[in-house]
Amino acid sequence: MFEQINGGVCAAKGFKAAGVHCGVKAGSKPDKNDLALILSEKECAAAGTYTLNRVKAAPVYVTMEHLEDGVAWGVVANSGNANACCPMSHENAVAMAKAAAAVTGREQSDFVVCSTGVIGQTINIAAIEAGLPKVAEKLAAGEAASDAAARAIMTTDTAKKEVALQAKIGGKTVTMGGIAKGSGMIHPNMGTMLCFITTDCAITHEMLEDALRDVVTKTFNRVTVDGDTSTNDTCVVLANGMAGNELVEWKNEDYETFRSLLMELCTELARKIAADGEGASRLITCTVSGARNEETAERLAKAVVGSSLVKAAMFGADANWGRVICAMGYSKAPFRPEYVDIRFGSAAGDILVCEQGAAVAFDEEQAKKILTQSEIVIDINVNEGEGTAECWGCDLTYDYVKINGDYRT
Amino acid sequence: MFEQINGGVCAAKGFKAAGVHCGVKAGSKPDKNDLALILSEKECAAAGTYTLNRVKAAPVYVTMEHLEDGVAWGVVANSGNANACCPMSHENAVAMAKAAAAVTGREQSDFVVCSTGVIGQTINIAAIEAGLPKVAEKLAAGEAASDAAARAIMTTDTAKKEVALQAKIGGKTVTMGGIAKGSGMIHPNMGTMLCFITTDCAITHEMLEDALRDVVTKTFNRVTVDGDTSTNDTCVVLANGMAGNELVEWKNEDYETFRSLLMELCTELARKIAADGEGASRLITCTVSGARNEETAERLAKAVVGSSLVKAAMFGADANWGRVICAMGYSKAPFRPEYVDIRFGSAAGDILVCEQGAAVAFDEEQAKKILTQSEIVIDINVNEGEGTAECWGCDLTYDYVKINGDYRT
User: Fold this and answer.
1) Which residues pair with B287 in a beta bridge?
2) Rounded CA gap, B85 and B74, in Å?
3) Is the CB of residue A183 less than 8 Å from the CB of residue A278?
4) Model pLDDT, residue A192
5) For A3-275, CATH number?
6) Buried-most residue among B152, B226, B368, B395 (CB within 10 A)?
C-alpha cells in the first residue's frame, strides 16, 4: 500500500488541469463541467489502451495516431457527446486537438483526444472551440484543478473518481495521479472507460506501455457494470520525468515499484467505477481462488459479477447462491461443480452458503444482515489449484433501468 | 405456414397430459399447478437437447441417461424447485421417475424428468410422490389437459406457452404440439428452457434427433432474456408414430416437411418465451441481413437483443441506435461499421435511423410512435453478403429487477 495524497492528475510535478462548462450538450446545466484539459510542462512518455469494440469513436482513432510516436503533452476531453458514428466525427475529433494545440502553443499531435456521451449525434464543436480558450486561461493562471477536470468527464457518474499516490523510486519521490469516469456502457475490454493518469516518474515509453497493458488487464478489464463495451474506452498514462529519478528503462526493481504503484492506482479507480455503476447501490467484489490458473479464476469471477440474476439478487440482499454457481457454469471456464465452496461476506461478517457444490444450512437472518451492506464480497473457492482473481461489479437496480430507459432524450 | 390447431401436447394422436397442484414449494397457492405428466399410448422415438451449463441439475443427467436408447413414453415435470445442487438431488430425480413409472405401469427409464425453480434447496419429493397418483388418475380418466400441464411448468411466466400445428406428411395428417416455459434465466445454449413437444409422426430416433438439433439452434438458441443460461434447460420431442405415415427414416421430402413443421412450432414457442421474459413489456426481434454468413448474422443479432442498454432503451421507447451499433461492435462478429444500415419498425411503421454507419436525420415523434408498440423489430443490414438471422429478446424493465431482487424468499 502506497501513500495516498491529494491532487489527482495535478499531484505529480509539472501537470496542470482545468475544467469548464462549454455547453457540448444542448440544454445542459451551466454548473456541469463538460470540457477538460490536462497539460504537462514537459514532453511526456505516453501509453494508451483502447476499446476493442469494432465500432470505435473518432477520437479513439485520432488518439491512437497521436500516440504512435510514444509521446504527448496533454489531454483534451469532453462529456455530453461521444463524437461517434456521425459523418463529421473524424473531422471534429481532429478539430478538437487543433483547438487544444492553438490555445496552448503546442502541436495537434501532442494531444490525447477523448469524448464520452451519446453516440450518433453530431458534436457541437463550436462550443468546444469557444470553451478551450477559457480552460487555457485557467491553466496559464497556474490552475491545478484536477477536481474540475474530473467533473468535466462525468456523464451519469454520481461521484468523481480521482486518486493520487506516492512512492520512492530510485531514491526519489515519484507521484502518480489519475481521474476516471465510468457508470454505464462499462465492460472494458483491453481498454477501459475514460481514465487519465499522470506521473512525474522518468520512464521510457516502452516500459510505460508494458506496465499499462499488464495493469489494465488486471484492473479495469475486471470491472463490469452492464456487459456493454463502449465505443470510446480509453486509458492513457503520461509520464513527464520531472521526479528526477533514474530513468526506468528495463524491468528492474524500480520498474516493479512503478508497476505496483500503477496497479494500486488503477485498482482504486476500477473499484470506484464499479461502485458508481449506473443506479448501483452496492459494490460487488467476486474473488475466486483455487482455480486451475489465473485466467480460469478471472473468467469465473467475471461471469458472476456480470450475471443479471446475481446482480438483481444482490440488490434484493437475497443470498441466492444458486445463481452464482449457475453463472460459473455458463462461463465456459473449467471447474468441478462438486468442489465449489461459496461464501458471502461484508463488513457485517461472512457466511458459508454452498460447500462442495451443494447447499448447506445457513442463518437467513445473518445472510440478510451481511448482504444489506454497501460492499459485498462473493468469495468462491473451486479447490482445484492455485489460480486466483478478483473482479468488480455492482447490483442491478430500478435506477439502472430508469437511467437507461431515457438517457438520450 | 402450417395450420394452427388447439390441444397443445394432446393434439397429436395417442398423447394425454394433466397437471395438478401438489405443493412442491412451501406456501405456494393451491390453485397454482406444479406437477405435470405427459403420457403416450405407444412407445415414442425420443430426442432431447440440454443445457450446456457446466452445472447441470440432476434431472438433466437422469433424462440424458433415460433417452440414451432413443425411446420414451412420457414426461414428468415440476415447477417450484430446480432440484439442483443439493446432496440428494440425484436420488430425488430418480425417485420422481420411479414414482411416475409406478402410477402409469411403465418403467422408470421410460420417463423424461424435468424440474424448474430455485437452485440449492432440497426438493419436496414427498409432495411429488403424493401428487403423482392424482395426475395418473386424471390421465386414466382420459384427460387431455395440455393446458393444465403447461400451467404446471410455469414459474415467473405470466402466460402459458402452447402451440399445435398440422401438416400432411406422406399423404397422412401429422400433428405436432408443444408446451414450454421460460421467463428468467433464459439464454439457452444448445438446449432451451423446458419445452415438451409431442407428435404422432412416424419417424426414426435418428431423424428426430437431427431435426431437433437443427431447429433448436435456429429457434430457442436465438432467444435471450437475461444472458443467464440455466442449469435445467431441456427440450424433448416424443414421436409415437400413430399418424400412420410411412416411417421417415432418411432425409427425403417428408423429412423436410417434418423439419419445417418443427421449425414453425419452435419459432412460435421461442417468440412466446421472449415476449414473456421476466418483467418484459415488449418483444424485440432483431433481424440481421447482408452478413458474410449466417453465423455472423446470428452473432450480431444476438448481441443486440442481449444488450442491457438496448433493452433499457426499448423499455423507454428511445430510438438510441448508437447502442445497437455499439453492441454489434463488441459481438466479435466481423462487419464494417461504415456499411451498416439500421431501421426500427413495428405495427406503427418503420424508420431509418442509421445509414452507412452514420446518423441520419429522422422524425423523433414518429420513432416514439413506432417504439411504443408491443412488438419491435430492429432491422439491420450490414451490406456485405447473403447471411441472415433473426433473434428474439425483450426489454429491460423495473419489473425484471423487482422479480429478481426477491425471487427466492
Assistant:
1) B379, B390
2) 25
3) yes
4) 44
5) 3.60.70.12
6) B152
Residue B250 has pLDDT above 70, yes or no: yes
E strands, A122-246, are 161-169, 172-180, 195-199, 234-239
Instruction: Measure the CA–CA gap between B91 and B26, rounded to whole angstroms.
Output: 20
* B63 confidence band (pLDDT: 50, 70, 90): very high
C-alpha cell at A361: 444450512
Mind listing the pLDDT tens digit for each residue in A8-19? 999 999 999 999
SS3 per residue for B137-168: HHHHCCCECHHHHHHHCCCCCCCCEEEEEEEE
Which residues of B fall within a CB distance of 8 Å from A334? 54
Rounded-to-integer distance, Cα A48 and Cα A62, Å = 12
pLDDT digits (tens, 9 = 90+) for A214-269: 999 899 888 887 666 778 888 999 999 999 999 999 999 999 999 999 999 999 99
Write the Ramachandran bin of B170: left for phi over 0, alpha for psi from -120 to 50, otherwise beta.
left
What is the structure's pLDDT at B191? Answer: 41
ipTM of the complex: 0.80
Q: Which of B86, B226, B326 sits opposite A55 (nearest CB)?
A: B326
Q: Which amino acid is at B374?
A: S
The candidate with the shortest Cα–Cα distance to A81, out of A136, A131, A119, is A119
Going by their DSSP bridges, the two strands A283-291 and A375-381 should be labelled as: parallel
Closest CA to B197 of B224, B237, B249, B256: B237
Q: Which residues of A are catalytic?
A: 192
Number of helices (H), then strands (E), in chain B: 11, 15
- The residue that leads in pLDDT, B303 or B401, is B303
The CATH number given to B283-405 is: 3.10.20.340
Which residues share a beta bridge with A375? A283
Residue keyed to cell 405443493: B23
> Average pLDDT, stretch A362-377?
95
Listed by start position, the domains of chain A span 3-275, 283-405
What CA–CA distances, in Å, run from B261 to B182, B252, B314? 21, 14, 32
Closest by CA position to B269, among listed B345, B197, B211: B197
pTM for the whole structure: 0.82
For an interface test with A, give the residue of B308, B335, B341, B395 to mutate (most A CBs within 10 A): B308
Q: A295 to chain B, minimum CA–CA distance in Å?
A: 17
Catalytic residue among B104, B116, B156, B192: B192
Cell triple for A144: 491545478
Half-sphere exposure at residue B28, Cβ-oriented, CA atoms within 13 angstroms: 24
Chain B positions in Cβ-Cβ contact with residue A360 (cut-off 8 Å): none
| Cell numbers at A215, concatenated | 495493469
Contacts of A141 (CB under 8 A, 6+ apart): none
CA distance B304 to chain A (A): 10
A-chain residues within 8 Å CB-CB of B398?
398, 401-402
